Structures are given as C-alpha cells and as structure tokens.
C-alpha cells in the first residue's frame, strides 16, 4: 500500500509518502519566519502560506520519490483539531487528489497521529499510557490498540507548549521558543523554588499551565536583565553559553517545573488506570531533553517500555498522518468527500465508513 499524508493543521505544511514498509519521503515547509515577528501563529497568514506552498511541495514530493498520484492507494489528511483555514487547504488538496485518482480519502485525528508516530518502525506494547504535549494540547490518554483511545486528562487552559512559547517571547526569543528554552536550560541545575508546579493540588489528571506562565512573567518583570538584548534572527546560530546565568537558570527551572508536573500526573495515571505495558510521550514538546529524561526515568521505575518518537517526528509532520492513514485504510476505514475540518476545542468523531473494495492495481505493468 502507498499512502500520502497531508498535514496543515497549524503552521507546518508537510506532505509524506508511507508504504507498508515504512516512511518513504517527507517534504515540509516551515512558516517560522512569517510568524516569529508576531510571537505566535497568525491564522490568516498561516492559511495563505499553506495555499502558496502546498502545490509545489506536492509536485516535489512525487517527483523526488519517483511516484505519481495514480500510484496512491489512499490519501490521508489531518482533519483536525487545528486552525480551520489551515486545515481546509490540506482537505482541498486531499479531495482534489481523490477525485483525480479514485483513491479513497482517510481523515486523520491529528492528536492520535502524534501518539502513533512514536510507534513508527516498532510495535507499541498495549495498553499504553500516552502523554501528548504540544503547542496546542497537553493530554493523557489510555490506549488499548492503534484505534482505541480514552482521554484521561487534559489542560484546562494553556498547553505546555504555550508556557514555553510565552516564556520565550518574554525573554525576547523567537517563536516557537520551546527549543531555545530547552537549549538554554541544558546542563544548568534548576532552582526548584523559582516557579510553581501548577495544578498539583487538584488530585485529578487535568493540567493548568496559565499560573506557571504568570509566575514566569512576574519573575521576568522583576528581573528585566533576563531578557536577551537582541532577538536571534531566523535560522541564526545561537550560542546558549552567551546568555546570562540568570536567563539560563530561569529556563532550566521552567523545563524542570513542566517536566516534574508531567511526571507526577503520569504516576497518578498509572496508579488510577494501570497496569500499562508502555509509556508514549509525543508532540512538539516531547523534543524537550528534560521531558525525555523524565519519561525514561518514569518508564524504568514502573517497568514500562518507553516509546518516544525520534525528534524529527515530534513536531507536526505529514509522516505521522500517512502512518495512521495507512493503518486505517488497511483496516478498510475511510471517509467520503463530504469530510469536514474540525477546529481546535471540538471533539473529533469516530465516523469512519467501510471503504468499498478497490480493484488491486498493477503498479509496474510488465514491459
Ligand atoms: O506538535 P507541535 O509541532 O504543534 C502543535 O500541534 O501544537 O508542537 C509545537 C510546540 C511549540 O510550542 C514549541 O515551542 C514546542 O512544541 N517545542 C518544544 C521543543 N521543541 C518544540 N518545547 C520544549 N522543548 C523543545 N525542545
Ligand atoms: Zn501537533
């Protein structure tokens, strides 16, 4: 089977081809330069950029992979949650390709795709405890198969990624700032009393990161010297060693406060909903080195298999959409061309229909 995956839910335009043997090729265009000046994604600009980039990216993908749209057995597309205008660009391309080739359409839940991306190239031992930490979401899931997900906890306000991105903005670092905070804090002993580990008094599995953001804002306001004198330009080499010790301490302490909050909620989830066979940590924030170390420690202590995506598959990417799309198509599940985009905050229904059996196509006709 050959499946195209289309990801346009936020500000990455990413297309990928995945076959039964695994990922073949991915083409991704970032929009960081467009949004970095604003300190966050501007939805109107994001959808216009997707529209500008997606056609040439699609042509480049097929020509570099030596494949053609007619080779596709399914077209998988992120249907949400995400920015509505951005999702519609991906859905437009997906439906166009389906109309032109007759390939079936498979709408993919972007959040589930993040979690399953950790299993690319390996098998996920179920039941799995899934922690999804990204720019828009912080969630804990119980997963009993590739298609059975139960939400156990979620953020009540800001996502973990927002705590990183807003802190970066206060420190005069570019958007998205998580990776700068990660780099600045690396190798620095955190101050455990500097920032609170939020929402731990609540015994449940929900998160709330807005208080942490406020605590960082107050700290930076009281110590204006923490702000970098000049924001590093897009793609500019950035030496964390040149930042002040106070800035690095604040970053290390934020990395610790977020990682330790996640650690405590993971232990609670294991106690309340275990036993689990594996721990998955996925999403853009799963690239954070302190969070990866924390996950490894939790998995070791609880005897769980640790399933982390490689760094390239943490942030939004077309490969994860194609990977989950291929699993769904193989199970005979897809959508008709009425498939709609679903914005952030709305639940994604499990509304697959059984795909009509297709004639098997001869990929390489003899002669
Ligand atoms: O999954 P993703 O690409 O997009 C969403 O679906 O939201 O996640 C993006 C988020 C941003 O908030 C970004 O700052 C954060 O992931 N991020 C990191 C790191 N790399 C990316 N946060 C902390 N440490 C990192 N190394
Ligand atoms: Zn994402």
Structural class: alpha/beta
Oligomerization status of the protein chains = single chain
Number of helices, counting only DSSP H or I runs of 4 residues or more: 10
Q: Determine the strand fraction and express it as a percent band.
A: 15-25%
Widest sheet, order of strands: 3-2-1-4-5
Describe this structure in words.
It is built from ten helices and twelve strands. With 367 residues, the chain is of the alpha/beta class. It has two domains: 2-115 and 315-360, ATPase, nucleotide binding domain (Nucleotidyltransferase, domain 5, 2-Layer Sandwich); 126-308, Nucleotidyltransferase, domain 5 (2-Layer Sandwich). Helix 4 (110-117) crosses helix 10 (318-330). The chain is globular, with a radius of gyration of 21 Å. The relative contact order is 0.18.
Put the structure in a nutshell.
This protein has 10 helices and 12 strands. The protein is an alpha/beta fold and 367 residues long.
Name the descriptors.
10 helices, 367 residues, binds 5'-O-[(R)-(carboxyoxy)(hydroxy)phosphoryl]adenosine, 5-stranded mixed sheet, Nucleotidyltransferase, domain 5
């Amino acid at each position: 089977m050959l499946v195209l995956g289309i990801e346009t839910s936020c500000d990455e335009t990413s297309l990928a081809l995945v076959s039964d043997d695994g990922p073949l090729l991915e083409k991704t265009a970032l929009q960081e330069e467009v949004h970095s000046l604003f300190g966050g994604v501007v939805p109107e600009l994001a959808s216009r950029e997707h529209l500008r980039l997606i056609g040439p990216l699609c042509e480049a993908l097929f020509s570099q992979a030596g494949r053609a749209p007619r080779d596709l057995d399914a077209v998988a597309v992120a249907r949400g949650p995400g920015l509505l205008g951005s999702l519609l660009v991906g859905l437009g391309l997906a439906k166009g390709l389906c109309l032109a080739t007759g390939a079936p359409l498979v709408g993919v839940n972007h959040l589930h795709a993040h979690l399953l991306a950790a299993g690319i190239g390996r098998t996920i031992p179920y039941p799995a405890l899934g922690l999804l930490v990204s720019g828009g979401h912080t969630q804990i899931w119980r997963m009993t198969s590739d298609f059975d997900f139960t939400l156990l906890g979620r953020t009540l306000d800001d996502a973990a990624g927002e705590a990183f991105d807003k802190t970066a903005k206060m420190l005069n670092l570019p958007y998205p700032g998580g990776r700068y905070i990660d780099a600045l804090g690396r190798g620095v002993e955190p101050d455990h009393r500097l920032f609170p580990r939020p929402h731990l008094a609540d015994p449940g599995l929900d998160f709330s990161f807005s208080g942490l953001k406020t605590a960082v804002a107050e700290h930076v306001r009281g110590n204006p010297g923490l702000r970098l004198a000049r924001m590093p330009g897009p793609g500019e080499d950035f030496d964390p060693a040149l930042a002040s010790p106070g800035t690095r301490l604040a970053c290390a302490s934020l990395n610790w406060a977020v990682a330790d909050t996640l650690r405590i909620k993971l232990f609670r989830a294991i106690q309340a909903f275990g036993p689990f066979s594996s721990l998955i940590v996925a999403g853009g924030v799963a690239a954070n080195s302190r969070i990866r170390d924390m996950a490894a420690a939790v998995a070791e202590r609880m005897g769980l298999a640790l399933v982390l995506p490689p760094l390239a598959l943490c942030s939004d990417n077309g490969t994860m959409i194609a990977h989950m799309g291929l699993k769904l198509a193989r199970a005979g599940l897809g959508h008709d061309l009425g498939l709609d985009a679903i914005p952030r905050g709305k639940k994604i229904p499990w509304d697959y229909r059984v795909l009509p059996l297709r004639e098997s196509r001869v990929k390489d006709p003899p002669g």
